[in-house]
Design a protein that fits this description.
Blueprint: H1 2-8, E1 9-11, E2 17-20, E3 27-32, E4 35-38, H2 46-49, H3 54-57, H4 60-65, E5 74-78, H5 84-89, E6 97-102, H6 105-117, E7 123-127, E8 140-146, H7 155-165, E9 166-178, E10 191-192, H8 194-202, E11 206-212, E12 218-225
Parallel strand pairs: 5-6, 5-8, 6-7, 8-9, 9-10
Antiparallel strand pairs: 1-2, 2-3, 3-4, 9-12, 11-12
């Protein structure tokens, strides 16, 4: 009935998030702009991130080729995990660097181990918070989020932090499994529709540039830091 439905929804004090006691078991019961936030894959899932089938199921090299990298770029790999993209981007930007950001120290330990073993000098690791990527202002050319954004516990705060870290004209590039396609065998909360991503990025002042579906299962979405005053979105 109406009373039980109302009791199930609790808005946060700032009005940004809603919380529900009855929700998808794959989610955390927290909702942002109508979307339930998915549970985080723990470091125990590191083997899955490095699975051999990833190269042909997701074609990550094709995605990297489309990043349009310059040799001096600073790329922030947000939710870097085991560094799957970090280590593939690093040699392409010899005068730049990759900043691998994750909230799980175990993931960053894996990246640091490989980095030191292979004597890679243009990778930095940053332990972020759930609501702060811990990046310096106006230092990043590209913020790359691969199958990570849908798990952000504080998506608005994280994206405001990423926005601040971008240089003028900097880009945010998201890869997310296509939520419009029920044939993609990924749990529902770990997929996103183009419409939802646009809504959430626009809400923090990012300007949509393009959506390309050249990858087998994922959207490739590009947003740019606009010249609009941040005061409109704080």
């Amino acid at each position: 009935n109406a009373c039980s439905i109302k009791a199930n929804v609790v808005a946060s004090s700032d009005g940004v998030y809603q919380y529900k006691t009855i929700h998808n078991p794959e989610g955390i019961g927290k909702f942002y702009l109508g979307r339930e936030i998915a549970k985080v894959m723990g470091h125990e899932g590191a083997v899955w991130l490095e699975r051999p089938s990833r190269s042909y199921r997701e074609n990550p090299q094709n995605a990297i080729d489309r990043l349009d990298l310059k040799s001096t770029d600073v790329v922030a790999d947000i939710g870097a995990g085991t560094g799957y993209f970090t280590f593939r981007i690093s040699p392409l930007i010899p005068q730049g660097k990759v900043i691998a950001v994750d909230i799980q120290p175990e993931m960053l330990e894996l990246i640091n181990f490989v980095k030191n073993e292979e004597n890679i000098t243009n990778i930095e690791t940053v332990l972020g918070d759930v609501d702060n990527p811990k990046l310096s202002p106006s230092t990043v050319d590209i913020a790359l989020l691969v199958d990570a954004y849908h798990e952000f516990e504080y998506p608005r705060e994280m994206m405001l932090g990423i926005f601040a870290a971008l240089k003028s004209g900097g880009r945010v590039i998201l890869l997310e499994y296509r939520g419009e396609n029920p044939m993609i065998m990924i749990k529902g909360l770990h997929k996103m529709t183009e419409k939802q991503v646009k809504k959430e990025m626009n809400s923090v002042g990012l300007v949509w540039q393009e959506t390309d579906d050249f990858l087998p299962q994922q959207h490739f979405l590009v947003f740019k830091k606009s010249d609009v005053s941040r005061s409109n979105y704080n």
